[in-house]
Amino acid sequence: MTRSFAVPASAAAVLLALFTGACTGAANPGLPAPPPHRDGQVLWHIVHDQCVPDQQQSGRPAPCIEVALGQGVERGYAVLKDKDGAEQYLVMPTIDVTGIEDARLLAPGAPNYFADAWRAQTYVDARIGKTMPRQDMAVSVNSPYGRSQDLLHLHVDCLTPRSVAALTADLPRIGRRWSSARFIFEGHPYHAIRLDGDTPTADPFRVLADGMPGAAKDMAAWTLVLAGATFPGGKPGFVLLAGRADPAHGDFASGEELQDHDCAIAHGS
Questions:
Q1: Which of 26, 64, 187, 217 has the maximal Cβ count within 10 Å?
Q2: How many CB atoms within 10 Å of residue 72?
Q3: Domains of the chain as residue ranges with CATH
Q4: Ramachandran quadrant class, 19 (left: phi over 0; alpha: psi -120 to 50; beta: rest)
């Protein structure tokens, strides 16, 4: 579920609100309770009632394309082709983690579902028919305000061409600490931080909780987008974006809005 606005995103659109909101530790405005999600257990029933039993009984995890149980169900994950988009996949835990707000994501030794989801990009590549440049790809998790399901699900897909262009332009401003300024992507403000490495060894949920003042007690307010990046010298890495919900002003913290489920960037359109 995503809500986006066709507002051009560029480096010039950096919101120069230094030391405001979540990045300062100042009191964030109170948020209403997240909306109830009608039929919010659909993904859970697919994973729990179909994919996992099929994998255990036959080794064919239909309707999922993969169920990884090498470390047991408690640390496993499932990969499902989403019904929306030609190439979009979802990566989900095989236990009932509800979403970004679930405390188990911050428990010591918790699985790094973002790393699992980044590896699942190979399924997107297979459907497109070529290996996509890392800077064109992203993994996103929506907040409870901007999602429809109550099983943690990470969206794996292409970025919008606007988001790729904006991230490329803004890359020199993004460092290894959370930005105090907020960058505008698809009409909404996001804080940004650089992560190094070919794969996301640092768990983005933990990066948010540990590095953004107040976030650990307020995880339900946030959305995360892990976008691939190539830094100067050809160094692989990521830009992690974090946006905070502001429902009163039409921001439901749905980072999925930065992704393009038609993957226009892959098809030259």
A1: 64
A2: 9
A3: 11-267 (3.30.428.30)
A4: left
Distance between CA atoms of residues 81 and 262, nearest Å? 14
What was the pLDDT predicted at 1?
A: 40
- How far is the C-alpha of 255 from the C-alpha of 4, rounded, in Å? 9
Tokens found for residue 90: 């979802």
Q: Which amino acid is at 209?
A: A
pLDDT category of residue 164 using cuts at 50, 70 and 90: very high
Phi, psi of 19 (to 5 degrees): 50, 50
Rg from Cα positions in the chain = 18
Q: Which amino acid is located at 123 in the chain?
A: Y
* Pick from 250, 269, 196, 178: nearest CA to 7: 250
> How far, in Å, CA of 221 to CA of 212, rounded?
12
Report the pLDDT averaged over residues 194-206. Answer: 98
Q: Which of 257, 259, 246 is nearest to 2 (CA)?
A: 257
CA distances for 32 relative to 106, 157, 189, angstroms: 23, 30, 19
The tokens for 53 are 């039993």
pTM of the shown model: 0.89
Instruction: Give the integer Cα–Cα distance in Å for 239 and 192.
Output: 7
Structure tokens at 83: 């019904």
**In which band, very low, low, confident or very high, does the pLDDT at 218 lie, cut at 50, 70 and 90?**
very high
